[in-house]
Task: inverse folding
């Protein structure tokens, strides 16, 4: 294990990090690890150099290691994918230069401070210390960043620039997830990103399963805000909200009512008697503004969605006009916690069946959870309230996926009508009904944020 000191060339005061890293990993992975600790967003190409490539005295002797994409385009350089960090350091005489973004040319000097053996099972890299946040992406290189920092601190802008526009751009480019604090280095975020990198951006919780459906570049892009809002890719010991256990009671009631086979009508609807018992025992009277004492499934959208969800989740089975509880449904209907955990697991099972392997309903639902877990509300009407800063449109995430709005003939945006899974619509509707009945409507966003984090992390 090497202890490296990484300093961003030209920064004053210096922007630096120290980290421990396995010298046996390949340079392409080492570069991603350096991006994580510095705070770069995996948005540009990277290279390692044995000497500063722009120094005329050393340029002719310098060795440069490129990623495969760059080598194919440039036609020169050594491969990062088959060269270890230790081999590169040895070839460079113990000192390397790491370049990120060939446009802004962020150059980092890397020196070895210490070396020790690696313990069994030890992570391949970790942050030790650091100072100051990394410059904003696309800020014009180190001189452009220093100029923008000066303007942010209240100094006048050059004649051809508007200070107000520069400051607004800096806050916009900093992102909703990571407010601009130039003096702050968030070691916790760097460590979280390193953990995702070590797991190859895959995992066993809801977020990890969503990542599993993505291409590597997309995983890396989404991992940055995920770490910034404290999300990981492995189950984190988070417990299911007790109120959600109670909210799932209608699933248990419907399954119990179908313990004995229920014959559906010729049109495929539940008998009114069964619907009436379901509504009464679940405490859902009036949820669909139904009138009269006879409850009919065909005019109660909540009951329709409840039955469809129960069938999709494997709690009920429909065959030859008869609805019956499955073996799993019978096992779960007597255990409220196990039932709620099962429903949550099914909810957080992403789909990837559409064009290019994506499913807009699934991705849009996961994006909504992601936004709620980050402290915002993915409700398009929120922007018209006195607190529009609480609102974040799902398109801000989904545009990264490359989704196209065929109605507007442009990438998805705030005006796009984005769908979501019907089972999630059902959960939101049940919660809204319960909270309003208890005169607690103001706490609906809080509950949805709690549940969203559980679905992603559980």
Result:
């Amino acid at each position: 294990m090497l202890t490296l000191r990484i300093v961003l060339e030209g920064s004053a005061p210096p922007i630096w990090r120290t980290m421990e890293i396995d010298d046996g990993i390949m340079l392409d992975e080492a570069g991603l690890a350096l991006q994580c600790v510095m705070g770069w967003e995996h948005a540009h190409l990277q290279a390692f150099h044995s000497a500063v490539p722009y120094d005329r005295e050393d340029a002719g002797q310098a060795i440069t290691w490129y990623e495969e994409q760059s080598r194919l385009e440039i036609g020169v350089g050594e491969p990062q994918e088959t060269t270890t960090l230790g081999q590169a350091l040895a070839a460079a005489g113990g000192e390397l230069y790491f370049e990120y973004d060939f446009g802004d040319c962020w150059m980092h000097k890397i020196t070895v401070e210490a070396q020790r053996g690696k313990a069994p099972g030890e992570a391949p890299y970790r942050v030790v210390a650091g100072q100051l946040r990394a410059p904003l992406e696309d800020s014009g290189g180190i001189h452009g960043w220093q100029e923008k920092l000066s303007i942010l601190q209240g100094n006048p802008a050059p004649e051809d620039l508007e200070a107000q526009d520069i400051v607004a751009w800096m806050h916009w480019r900093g992102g909703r997830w990571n407010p601009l604090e130039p003096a702050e280095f968030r070691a916790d975020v760097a460590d979280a990103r390193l953990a995702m990198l070590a797991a190859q951006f895959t995992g066993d919780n809801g977020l990890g399963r969503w990542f599993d459906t993505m291409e590597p570049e997309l995983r890396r892009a989404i991992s940055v805000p995920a770490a910034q809002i404290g999300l990981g890719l492995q189950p984190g010991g988070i417990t299911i909200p007790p109120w959600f256990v109670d909210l799932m009671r209608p699933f248990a009631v419907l399954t119990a009512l179908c313990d004995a086979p229920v014959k559906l009508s010729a049109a495929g609807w539940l008998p009114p008697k069964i619907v009436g018992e379901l509504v009464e025992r679940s405490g859902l009277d009036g949820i669909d503004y139904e009138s009269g004492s006879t409850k009919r499934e065909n005019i109660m959208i909540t009951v329709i969605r409840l039955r469809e969800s129960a069938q999709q989740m494997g709690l009920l089975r429909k065959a030859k006009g008869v609805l019956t509880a499955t073996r799993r449904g019978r096992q779960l209907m007597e255990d409220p916690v196990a039932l709620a955990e099962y429903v949550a697991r099914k909810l957080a099972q992403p789909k990837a069946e559409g064009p290019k392997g994506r499913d807009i309903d699934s991705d849009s639902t996961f994006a909504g959870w992601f936004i709620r877990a980050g402290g915002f509300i993915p409700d398009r009407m929120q922007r018209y309230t006195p607190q529009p800063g609480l609102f974040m449109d799902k398109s801000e995430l989904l545009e990264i996926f490359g989704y196209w709005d065929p109605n507007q003939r442009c990438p998805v945006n705030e005006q796009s009508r984005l769908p979501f899974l019907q089972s999630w619509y059902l959960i939101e509707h049940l919660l809204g009904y319960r909270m309003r009945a208890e005169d607690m409507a103001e706490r609906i966003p809080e509950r949805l944020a709690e549940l969203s984090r559980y679905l992603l992390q559980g």
